[in-house]
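Each letter names a residue; structure tokens follow underneath. Both lines appear below:
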Amino acid sequence: MANVPQISITIIRSGYIVEIQGTGASVTFYPYDKDKTFDGIITKCKELGQDLTEDIENFEVKTERHNIDIQLTEIYKQYYEQVSNRTIREEVQLLIIANSMIKHKFQDQTGKFYIVTEKDNHDEIIDLDHQGFDSLLSRIYFEAEKKMISKDKRNNVKTLIKAYTTERRILYNRVTRIENTIYYDLNNEQRQCVNISKEGWEIVDNPLLFRPRDTNFAQVTPDRDYDESRHYVREMVGKSTIKYDHQKLIDEIYTISLFVPDIAHPMDVPIGPKSSGKSMHLRI
């Protein structure tokens, strides 16, 4: 039998969260998605030891779920009445909607502000000052209110989000080392990276270590079907117009070093006459 509470669960809305009274726990309030808020409450109850997901035919479970649904329906009714009576300003409406989709917000080491939100079943970092976030604000407000919101009001919301951002994180450009593991950002649609350690390598979900970039610059996904006896970087350097073996060796080591973080990387400046393959070498 499911472990349900002896006393009915009581929930209240506070801004853009719904608190489960007496537990100190809360979930995100999604102003225009009651089902998502409801599912969040049920999931949180399970984490608290009150499993309302299993044995749905059980009378106590059904009664408690119905109790939560009634309270949540009233919360949404009150919210919609506030909106219809214009007691909530447009900026506040947009801020509530935006906060409901923001998982984390932080500032990086350069002072830029970012949010983390869910997209296509994975977490994604978005730069608050990028046009993409401005477009996102316009879209979610239009979907909720079926009307546009001005740029000034969107800017006010962004300013408020920044004002209440206290977390700080370090973001990297392409590659970083965390303890004894190197992470190489593939920057693909799935937001994956390569995890490299002494034990080997694997493709993993991006641990939100890297600055967001256009996926037009995605890297080639590594393939495990390769010949370990071949020296692929050496073969690549061999296709260049470098003449001497010692220079090819320097170039091979230099290319590999570019994937190693936290070391100094010299600038590669090929020298040679016109049409000797300098630009081709750099492209390769």
The mean pLDDT is 87. Residues 11-84 form one domain.
